[in-house]
Amino acid sequence: MKRTFSFGLFALALVSPLYSVAQEVGRPQYSIDMSYPYDYSSIPAYTDDHAAIYKHIDANLPAHVENLQRWLRQPSISAQDVGIDAMAQLLVDDFRAMGFQEAELVPTDGHPGVWGYLDSGAAKTLMVYMMYDVQPVNPDDWQSPPFAAELVDHATGKVIMARGATNQKGPQRAFLNALESIIAVEGKLPVNLMITAEGEEELGSPHYPQIVDKYEDRLRTADGVIFPMNMQSPAGDLNLFLGVKGIAYWELEARGGSWGGPVTSEIHGSYKAALDSPVWRLIQALALLTSPDGNTAMVPGFYDGIRGPTEEEQSLIAASLLNNDRTSALKEAFAIERWIDDAGPEQRAMELTYSPTLNIDGIYAGYTGEGVKTILPHVATAKMDSRLPVGIDPEEHMDKIRAYLDANGYSDIVMRRLSSYPAAQTSIQTPLVQAALGVSKKYAGTPSVNPRIAGSAPFYQFTQRLKLPMMPWGMGFGSGAHSPNEIMLIEPAEGSGAAGLADIEKAYVDFVYALSGE
């Protein structure tokens, strides 16, 4: 089969036995081979029974709920530096209470990190990535106060409603609850444990590498990394992923200067007759970057370097498309009326996994309040991001955008680079993933596993830097991340397929034992 990329003025055809690409106007479009979907029957469900530990979880569930509430009632808004230091110290105190030999704050150039190490004398070591920060809130938008962490009734059952309930404090504290139960019953864990927690994930993790710096040699000895996460739908379906796209995030600013426009402040709008507008200049620069519909980047080399689907990734996508087209559910959930090009499930899955994006997150300039104020603004700003598949370096990506603006006469427009990191990927064949899939089958049946999601996280620190397999994983349902009325399911309603807190914790127990091989 031929793999063909067509990017604006040129096309390149390469021979590949794995997939084909057809392109007419710029965006690469991949055709997946559906003939060999991944065979999940080769992965046995986890069958060991840790009855005494399960019993301990059931008997102490009220206290475990209180642990979640204790974390959620401590604000930790990284963007506003609200409660950050107190939340970091709360983690340290909890690690020490659990018997960690090492538990300490880790200074960075931003918010502090947290390090924890528990030596159980085990053959294998699990690393856990945690984030303790949350998004800002507008309390008026919430059904229940965002840091009250109250138990409320929901269509799915009894839930905790709070900022951080599902993203990410709730599942992380549930994971620690499970570990505490193992220690209470067995005296020690079946694995050694390393935890690195950051307070800037919601800021793009600009200083997380500094936490890794301090413990890098030790972290490399781990057998894998888990990120505790609620990953079930309300019906109980489990949708897993083994990687993330990278991200580049920047601002473009047009300001009056030698090219024209007011320089130091806004002026009366009547002077537009004699002066250039920074707002129009920014708009023209932005329009230069894409096709008229905004869907295809016109920046030279924008799509260069994409690493297309491997044989393993093809098999995972094929199985996912056959068993569960999640993108159709997204259309309903987000009230979407039309996908780009009216794309079908296969094209949507491939675009979300393998195409880089060029997105405007926000534009602001001048007067946007009520009523009338006629001004000629002196500055206009756009916040932008690109989600980047495997193969695209984020700094080189932004270099190309900068060069394209310069080449077209927009060198005066300022580009401020705010955050960037590359994509990350883990193989389904690693023992870490196989252990998680075995436990998944025990609690939720055969999961859907995608190579990557369209979103971003700094997982490259594990997969590229530390050379460790890494995956987000966990039972349970949550919703409302970054939104009002964020929840995590605690007690499922009758007939619900998603796990409640007790089964979430039992699944984490099974996972650490499955990974240990005991």
What's the alpha carbon Rg, rounded to whole Å? 25 Å
Q: Please state roughly what percent of the residues sit in beta strands, choosing from under 5%, 5-15%, 15-25%, 25-35%, 35-45% or over 45%.
A: 15-25%
What's the shape? globular
* Cα separation of the termini: 46 Å
Total number of strands = 24
Largest sheet: 6 strands, mixed
Mean pLDDT: 92
Helical amount among residues, as a percent range?
25-40%
Sheet with the most strands: spatial strand order = 5-6-10-7-11-22
Structural class of the secondary elements?
alpha+beta
What does this structure look like?
The strands form seven sheets. This protein has a six-stranded mixed β-sheet with strand order 5-6-10-7-11-22, with helices on both faces. It is 30% helix and 24% strand. Helix 2 packs antiparallel against helix 4. The longest helix has 18 residues, at 169-186. By secondary structure, the chain is of the alpha+beta class. It has 13 helices and 24 strands. The chain has helices spanning 51-59, 61-72, 84-97, 169-186, 208-219, 278-288, 311-323, 326-333, 345-354, 394-407, 431-444, 460-465, 501-516; strands at 2-7, 10-15, 20-21, 30-31, 102-106, 113-118, 125-131, 150-154, 157-161, 192-198, 224-228, 239-241, 243-255, 267-268, 359-365, 375-376, 379-388, 414-421, 424-425, 448-450, 453-456, 470-473, 478-479, 487-492.
